[in-house]
Amino acid sequence: MPKHVVVIGAVALGPKAACRFKRLDPEAHVTMIDQASRISYGGCGIPYYVSGEVSNIESLQATPYNVVRDPEFFRINKDVEALVETRAHAIDRAAHTVEIENLRTGERRTLKYDKLVLALGSKANRPPVEGMDLAGVTPVTNLDEAEFVQHAISAGEVSKAVIVGGGFIGLEMAVSLADMWGIDTTVVELADQIMPGFTSKSLSQMLRHDLEKNDVVVHTGEKVVRLEGENGKVARVITDKRTLDADLVILAAGVSPNTQLARDAGLELDPRGAIIVDTRMRTSDPDIFAGGDCVTIPNLVTGKPGFFPLGSMANRQGRVIGTNLADGDATFPGAVGSWAVKLFEGSASGAGLTVEGALREGYDAVNVHVEQFDRAHFYPEKTIMTLQLVVDRPTRRVLGIQGFSTLGDALTARINAVATMLASKPTVEDISNAEVVYSPPFASAMDIVNVAGNVADNVLAGRCRLVGTEEFVQLWEGRKDADICFVDTRLAANAVPLVEKYGDEWINIPEEELAARIDEIPRDKTVMLVCNTGLRSFESQLILDRLGLTNTKSVAGGMVAIHKIGGDI
Q1: 3-class secondary-structure state, position 6
Q2: Distance in angstroms (rounded) separating the CA atoms of residues 307 and 315
Q3: What does the pLDDT look like over 340-399, one tens digit per residue?
Q4: Which residues bind Ca(2+) (predicted)?
Q5: pTM to 2 decimals?
Q6: In sequence order, which residues have a C-beta less than 8 Å from that of residue 138 and are 6 or more positions away?
Q7: Domains of the chain, earliest start first
Q8: Segment 148-175, tens digit of pLDDT
């Protein structure tokens, strides 16, 4: 008798699992249900629809051949029955049934299943404060919410917007509103940095500077305490520090697994509420599979349970589930958590742990910062890219990588190269010797990925003694009270503006002249060596070490990194 598979949820994982299964078992019957009217869409494209870069919302629901993936598409093209505006109310595991309701008619009925797939997704976190039910307050997690926001903006109803949350969606929405529509936009983040948990504090500062120089106001370490309205519509956001006028409030304070249905069915969940699955994506009930934003899978860096609500993850897991529904033996071992976000002038990307996250996990971690051209230095079209490598000191294991660049595709190519290695516990030497495609229009002969590994090796060996950019800026601002000497090792032409501005506080001794002018450097002070990217200052540090002057620090990333975080020097 043909197998009947029921899939609850039809955005990313559900359709992928259903269609993969049908390809492998064409005689089986698949019923896919979703409580929304529109299914199988690219939710990660919502900010670009709101901005107007994606002109038609149906584009997010269409195939590459511009066919909209609606129930008729699934019936004709995939032989999958798709029931929209249909809610699953309860799972009877013993009877292998799901109770469903047609939300248009109120009719309830029971579906019998042989195998069940839970693609329940996630739900937007809603801060427990007064005013969340006011008109003009919304997350942007589905197409209906996206249309509401886009139509309100297009109708001229929004001049001031507040975004609650400084993660991926929050920042992407900030760019959409401010860049494309010219709306006064403010981001309020509870943590002490934007992108908490995903970027180091120094990289987060680069993202913040990109936003702020494009007129997005950012408040970190700030809590929303209530929303106030007029005539039923939001008018103000009250935080613990200020009052912000707002015609629109976007809730982007993260997401949580949408797993009440699984909890009621008695499936095993983790403390976060995510469904626990094995490597074949089976739940604690062997006849029920789950994946996507509603499950926990291993973090392949820490070995601990992880939560990775990403559309790409859901699609890959959907294929694994579809294979196993057809009695295959596909596995999904876990993830390292790769990500990317596009801002105004720059993009950021990363994988694995930040240095702060690594320290919390008990690693003796160091963050290595590199600034280098993304292509051959002699090639006319190039930009200076930021990479940060997180390394465990005693084992030399690489735990994570992050970066920032004006060319996002060049950046993600580097992050991808390392992300695929992280599960194998690569060492610094693996990164130093990683094979990276080389041609002057695409990379340097010693690519920035390899350089990051080399710098990490120098740091661990004590040959390179670094100071971070934020710390350097703080030391410079407090220089009147510090026993520090600042030495610019660049050629004179580069240093002239700062020498003229700061006089004896900013000493210029080019690397080539250090040996001859070493007497100009005080031996009773800590010497901060700075250049454009950190290369000349490191080489200067080696020269001074040979000459017996070892009380030096090289500024990681140099003036390029200082300017990227908005340092006023």
Answers
A1: strand
A2: 15
A3: 999 999 999 999 999 999 999 999 999 999 999 999 999 999 999 999 999 999 999 999
A4: 230
A5: 0.93
A6: 145, 148, 149, 249, 250, 251
A7: 4-122+256-325 (3.50.50.60), 137-253 (3.50.50.60), 345-461 (3.50.50.60), 466-565 (3.40.250.10)
A8: 999 999 999 999 999 999 999 999 999 9
